[in-house]
Amino acid sequence: MEPILSASGESIGTKGAVKPVIIKDATSATFVKDVLESSQEQPVLVQFHAAWSEPCKEITPVLEKLVREFKGSVALIRVDIDQNRAIATQLSIQAVPTLYAFFKGQPIDAFQGALPEPQLRQFVQQLVKMADNGQSGIDEMIEQAFAALEKGDTDQAMRLFGGASHVEPENPAILGGLAQGYLAMGHKKEAIALLESVPEKDMGHAAIAKARATIELMALAKNTGDVKTLKAKSDAAPDDHQARFDLALAYIVAGQNDEAAEQLLEIIKVDNGWNDNAARDQLFKMFEAAGLSDPFTLRWRRRLSSMLFS
Predict the structure, then answer these.
(1) Helix (H, G, I), strand (E, B) or coil at 44
(2) How would residue 137 be classed by pLDDT, with cut points 50, 70 and 90?
(3) Residue 180 and residue 158: Cα distance in Å, rounded?
């Protein structure tokens, strides 16, 4: 794409720069060339705006400033939704300003609303870094998504996983992350459908295994009694492994994982192979659902190892 002139007619390309700074208005007729084709070479920010929108007027100079600062590493393409309704409809633009990030012909990220400059800068930096660093940029995007998921910021996690999936649609870490995100939002059916599409060779990936284990643990709620009743039954018959196992499942459903692990460990201590290793298998399933580096997993793995090899 050739260097573009600003609205005032003043060149915004820097003499001697490796890449021209591109800030341009596009239409439905030029969208494929200006966005999809151009994003094969560099990341493209597409700002959907309207002349009547005050937030658009606020965000536009900030975006232009950032694009200039990155010296051609990212292009800014502006699309007026009132004059280009076909593109706005196709991308389900429901409000302005909306910003889409395209790379390699695919939309990889998006947000709606007039974000403050620091968040806009982070948005652009992440896009440029991913494009510059190739695979390492995608890996960092995935790491940030899992970190967001861990903090409970599911919306941010799903936005990052969704963007990364456009670049690497078969990456098991991304698929597992998306499934975990769906589960965190309570969308169990979507998570199951996604996991069913995962190739058999990727089923052992940690992110996939964690999502699958979480679904299996969630299924326990259908067949488990309440903690109080099961605890009374187990206390009355401490040698009844099944009663203790049922109590452990009730603790899991109640979110009391440490209490559940304690009960399972007690079964393993007394009868390691009870019921075809049911207690140990259930404990390992909890480790997968929590994550192999989670403090819960590390703590109870140490206790299990200490008990088995003492």
Answers:
(1) strand
(2) low
(3) 9
pLDDT attached to residue 221: 62
Q: What is the pLDDT of residue 25?
A: 95
Note whether 1 and 53 are within 8 A (CB): no
pLDDT band with cut points at 50, 70 and 90 for residue 310: low
Region class of 240: left (phi > 0), else alpha (psi between -120 and 50), else beta: beta
**Strands of 75-80's sheet in order across:** 23-25, 75-80, 44-49, 98-103, 106-112
**Burial track 40-57 (b if 16+ CB lie within 10 A, e otherwise):** eebbbbbbbbbeebeebe
Q: Which residues are bridge partners to 178 per DSSP? A: none
**Residue 51 is encoded by which pair of tokens?**
């002349």
Q: For residue 286, give every residue at least 6 positions away whose Cβ sits within 8 Å of its Cβ, in sequence order, or none.
A: 213, 217, 252, 257, 260, 261, 264, 296, 297, 300
In b/e form, how buried is each residue of 258-285, taking b as 16+ CB within 10 angstroms? ebbbbbbbbbbeeeeebeeebbbebbbb
The span from the CA of 235 to the CA of 230, in Å, is 9
pLDDT of residue 300: 93
Average of per-residue pLDDT values in the chain: 86
**Chain-centre distance for alpha carbon 26:** 30
pLDDT-above-70 percentage for the chain: 92
What are the residue ranges of helices labelled H in 1-116? Answer: 31, 54-69, 85-90
Q: Are 73 and 128 in contact (CB under 8 A)?
A: yes
The widest CA-to-CA distance across the chain, in whole angstroms, is 86
The model's pTM is 0.60
| Burial call 63-92: b when 16+ CB within 10 Å, e when fewer | bbebbbebebbbbbbbbbbeebeebbeebe
Q: Are strands 23-25 and 75-80 parallel, antiparallel or unpaired?
A: parallel
pLDDT on residue 185: 93
Spatial distance between the Cα atoms of 124 and 6, rounded to a whole number of angstroms: 20
